[in-house]
Amino acid sequence: MAILITGGAGYVGRWLAHELAAPAGQRPGDDVVALDLRAPDPAARPPLPPTARFIEGDVTDRAALGEPYEIDVDPEAGVPVCYAKDAARALAMLATADAVARPIYNVSTGSATAQGLIEIVRARVPESRFSFKPDPRLGPVSRISRDWRVSVAAAERELGWRPAYTIETMVDDLIATVRNSGG
């Protein structure tokens, strides 16, 4: 099975790569790919496991630049999404709060299907080229979370946190970031 870790060169991503490299029940040699905007620092601990492959880039690069992009999940695969900037703001609010009422808060930018995200991107990048080639091993799993809804009511009520982005403005921001970085 292929496993993609976005943010794979970061601290959490490197630990996740170690956990996924050959855990119980998984065949050693399964493909663990760490994707990140920059290569991991060679002095960073833990380093990426030797069995993990590293790719420098961003999941949005190809689509934002109008290059062909093949998607390995069913078009109706869906998931609650939390944009990194919304998550970072929530973490900063938690880290600087005098006190919090609970140990866990849900934060979410919204929910989207793969097809829904593609439609948003195509409205902004008409020349974008997507195709679906679902991996049969991912099919059943990729549809499990499609109907999950994450309530941010407690974060809003107790912390004053609300998502600053919608799914659409998240896509706009990601496209702008990729284009401004030169791809």
Task: Produce the secondary structure layout.
Blueprint: E1 2-6, H1 11-21, E2 31-36, E3 53-56, H2 61-64, E4 68-71, E5 78-81, H3 84-96, E6 110-113, H4 114-124, E7 129-132, H5 139-142, H6 153-159, H7 167-180
Parallel strand pairs: 1-2, 2-3, 4-7
Antiparallel strand pairs: 5-6
Helix pairs in contact: 4-7
Q: Any overview of this molecule?
A:
This protein is α/β, with parallel strands linked by helices. The chain has 2 domains: 1-57; 60-183, Rossmann fold (3-Layer(aba) Sandwich). The protein is built from 7 helices and 7 strands; from the N terminus they run βαββαββαβαβααα. It has helices spanning 11-21, 61-64, 84-96, 114-124, 139-142, 153-159, 167-180, and strands at 2-6, 31-36, 53-56, 68-71, 78-81, 110-113, 129-132. The strands form 3 sheets. It has a 3-stranded parallel β-sheet with strand order 1-2-3, covered by helices on one side. Helix 1 (11-21) links the parallel strand 1 and strand 2 (31-36). It starts with a strand and ends with a helix. The mean pLDDT is 81.
